[in-house]
Task: structure prediction
Amino acid sequence: MQKGNLLTSQEIVRKFRITYQTLCHYTNIGLLNVTRKESNKRFYNERDIARRLKKIRQLREKDYSLKSILNEL
Result:
């Protein structure tokens, strides 16, 4: 994972304008990487998430399935 600030799920949702459900789904299927610290909370690397969400959005606009996007990442 790249170096950068670690953000909570709430911060990711606000900053990148995605729903909490989408964040959890993308994490659960492996599109987004998570780091667990303190009381099993989810933390995400800001740079990594920004890069991955940009790529996911670009590929979704081209009608790629989530499975295909996972293969691209």
Observations:
- The radius of gyration is 12 Å.
